[in-house]
């Protein structure tokens, strides 16, 4: 053996030894195959690496140009019936001087001419983990010296393969875990003992409204501008969980979402500090349904009083006509019929909310003119009884809105009904419906009534609050009407407002978003 070849072989062995610094498994396999092919003068080669748990193929490096399907078919065939399979099973290296005369050689349907081959098993931690095969187009190309040299090279590469396989396994498990986390729709994340985020899935990234690069390694309460992250940390700290799991509820006031939070302690042997695995389940729809049912119950109990009052009033009028021998005015009968229909609508809506397994909020396209006319039909008889002057300022050519017709009807009835009730008989009430230049529709009711004292105005939309003064002491009410109006309007994406001056009157109103025009087909 000449000095130049010995020097090259030593150089190859040093290069293989340096592969221990490489953690990329594919790179270790490729470089080992390339260096071994070069040092023994082979034309081509291939490298099989098998999984230590299942003996299935983990990697297959080949000089042949094969797609994924071909690689799978070729590798399986060779390991089952070819030379590589024989070497792996017997755990000994072998040289084939002429592949045409050896049945162990499996000829592939390709253009590569292979007449001699060298094949050695690859050991990792003294266990056979792969097979290296070298090929040449001429017979009798490889010698026993080449076989010994190939064995030395692959043995030298064993430590590098061990480290790279471990790293590859960790990376694979991490990718599988990330894929599993991202496949779950619930928010999942883990934090260490210093509350720094370790793992998280896509829903957690979306909830915290921060990119992945800014979340990993950051404290939970500092990783996002969303106040929910701070609320979450404080809630876990307050729970003082040292082992096991704990469940509690949390509400994101910014997005108005409700969550059931499940927290599990992550303990490490010999370490006192613990981390936490945190799962957030979005239960907004269930909470909204319960809130809606409560809201509908309040609305029905409150708003049934108005048609009941009208009904009783008209029944008295009909009774008076009957007692005096007169035929009851047909208008009275029609008003009684409308009051009954309104009561039926309220009760039906309440029952729908009670029976519904989903969201009882019915969002449909609404004609604002139909809506306002229905409200006027409901309330005008009451206004007439109090001899109020009703001024209607309804803008022409209004676009539709979207929402729950019954709820918006009752909200408007409440605002208009309050104006009728809190304005002395013979007052003036102006009801307006118009569109602003901000893609909103505005509903306002202005009256010349008693007004709200300044010191009580901040509480006007709170549940069960009633503004009181000497002038309004005789007026009955529950204090839930305006709070229901606020809840309905905000549920529809709008906002309530009012202006009032005691002794002069009030203006109550709200805006709702207009329904976006449908694009032309």
Record the strand order, biggest sheet. Answer: 2-1-5-4-3
Query: Within the CATH hierarchy, at the fold level, what is the topology of the largest domain?
Result: Heat Shock Protein 90
Radius of gyration: 41 Å
Proportion of β residues? Answer: 15-25%
Which CATH class of the largest domain applies here? Alpha Beta
Whole-number total of structural domains: 3
SSE order and pairing:
Blueprint: H1 3-18, H2 25-40, E1 44-50, E2 57-62, H3 68-81, H4 83-90, E3 94-96, E4 116-124, E5 127-136, H5 144-183, E6 187-191, E7 197-200, H6 202-208, H7 212-215, H8 227-239, E8 245-252, E9 257-268, E10 271-282, H9 284-303, H10 305-323, H11 330-355, E11 364-366, H12 368-385, E12 389-394, E13 401-403, H13 405-421, E14 428-435, E15 440-447, H14 481-491, E16 495-501, E17 505-513
Parallel strand pairs: 12-14
Antiparallel strand pairs: 1-2, 1-5, 3-4, 4-5, 6-7, 6-10, 8-9, 9-10, 11-13, 14-15, 15-17, 16-17
Helix pairs in contact: 1-2, 1-5, 2-5, 3-4, 9-11, 10-11, 12-13, 13-14
Overview of this structure, please?
The protein contains 14 helices and 17 strands. The strands form four sheets. The protein has a five-stranded antiparallel beta sheet with strand order 2-1-5-4-3, with helices on both faces. A five-stranded antiparallel beta sheet has the order 7-6-10-9-8. A five-stranded mixed beta sheet has the order 12-14-15-17-16. It is α+β, with helices and mostly antiparallel strands.
């Amino acid at each position: 053996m000449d000095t130049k070849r010995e020097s090259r072989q030593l150089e190859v062995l040093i290069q293989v030894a340096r592969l221990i610094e490489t953690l990329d498994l594919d790179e270790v396999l490729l470089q080992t195959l390339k260096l071994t092919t070069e040092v023994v003068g082979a034309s081509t080669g291939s490298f099989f690496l098998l999984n230590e748990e299942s003996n299935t193929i983990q990697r297959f490096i080949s000089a042949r140009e094969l797609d994924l399907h071909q690689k799978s078919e070729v590798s399986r065939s060779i390991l089952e019936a070819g030379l590589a399979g024989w070497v792996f099973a017997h755990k000994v290296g072998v040289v084939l001087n002429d592949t045409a005369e050896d049945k162990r050689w499996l000829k592939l349907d390709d253009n590569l001419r292979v007449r001699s081959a060298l094949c050695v098993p690859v050991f990792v931690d003294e266990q056979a983990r792969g097979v290296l095969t070298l090929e040449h187009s001429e017979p009798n190309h490889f010698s026993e010296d080449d076989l010994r040299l190939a064995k030395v090279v692959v043995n030298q590469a064993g430590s590098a393969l061990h480290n790279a396989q471990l790293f590859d396994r960790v990376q694979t498990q991490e990718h599988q875990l990330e894929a599993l986390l991202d496949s779950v729709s619930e928010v999942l994340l883990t934090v260490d003992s210093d509350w720094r985020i370790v793992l998280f899935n896509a829903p957690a990234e979306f909830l915290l409204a921060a990119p992945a690069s800014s979340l990993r390694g950051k404290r939970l309460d500092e990783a996002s501008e969303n106040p929910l992250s701070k609320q979450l940390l404080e809630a876990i700290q307050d729970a003082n969980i040292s082992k096991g799991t704990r469940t509690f509820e949390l509400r994101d006031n910014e997005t108005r979402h409700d969550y059931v939070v499940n927290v599990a302690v992550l303990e490490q042997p010999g370490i006192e500090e613990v981390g936490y695995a945190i799962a957030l389940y979005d239960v907004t729809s269930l909470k909204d349904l319960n809130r809606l049912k409560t809201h509908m119950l309040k609305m029905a109990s409150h708003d049934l009083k108005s048609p009941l009052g009208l009904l009783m009033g008209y029944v008295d009028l009909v009774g008076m006509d009957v007692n005096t021998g007169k035929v009851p005015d047909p208008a009275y009968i029609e008003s009684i019929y409308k009051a009954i229909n309104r009561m039926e609508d309220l009760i039906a809506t309440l029952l729908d909310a009670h029976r519904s397994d989903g969201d009882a909020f019915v969002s449909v396209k609404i004609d604002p003119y139909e809506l306002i006319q229905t409200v006027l039909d409901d309330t005008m008889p009451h206004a007439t009884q109090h001899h109020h002057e009703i001024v209607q300022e309804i803008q022409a050519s209004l676009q539709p809105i979207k929402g729950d017709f019954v709820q918006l009807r009752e909200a408007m009835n409440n605002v208009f009904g309050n104006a009728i009730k809190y304005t002395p008989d013979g007052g003036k009430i102006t009801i307006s419906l118009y569109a602003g230049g901000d893609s909103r529709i505005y509903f306002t009711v202005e009256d010349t009534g008693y007004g709200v004292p300044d010191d009580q105005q901040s509480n006007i939309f709170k549940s069960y609050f009633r503004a009181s003064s000497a002038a309004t002491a005789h007026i009955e009410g529950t204090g839930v009407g305006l709070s229901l109006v606020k809840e309905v309007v905000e549920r529809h994406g709008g906002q309530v407002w009012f202006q009032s001056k005691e002794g002069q009157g009030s203006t109550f109103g709200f805006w709702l978003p207009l329904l976006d025009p449908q694009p032309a087909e």
